[in-house]
Amino acid sequence: xxxxxxxxxxxxxxxxxxxxxxxxxxxxxxxxxxxxxxxxxxxxxxxxx
Length: 49
Known about the structure:
Strand content: under 5%
Order of helices and strands: H
Number of helices: 1
Number of strands: 0
Largest sheet: none
Mean pLDDT: 78
Radius of gyration: 19 Å
Helix content: 55-70%
Structural class: mainly alpha
Low-confidence stretches: none
Shape: elongated
């Protein structure tokens, strides 16, 4: 195990992949349950300036 840079890069990509997978699963489950909390911000009126 003499690869220091390659090992760190591999761990980083593995972590990023797992984090993306978890995020995708969470958003999918929220959508399946019918949680409208995600789209609530889109219903705000435009700012009056």
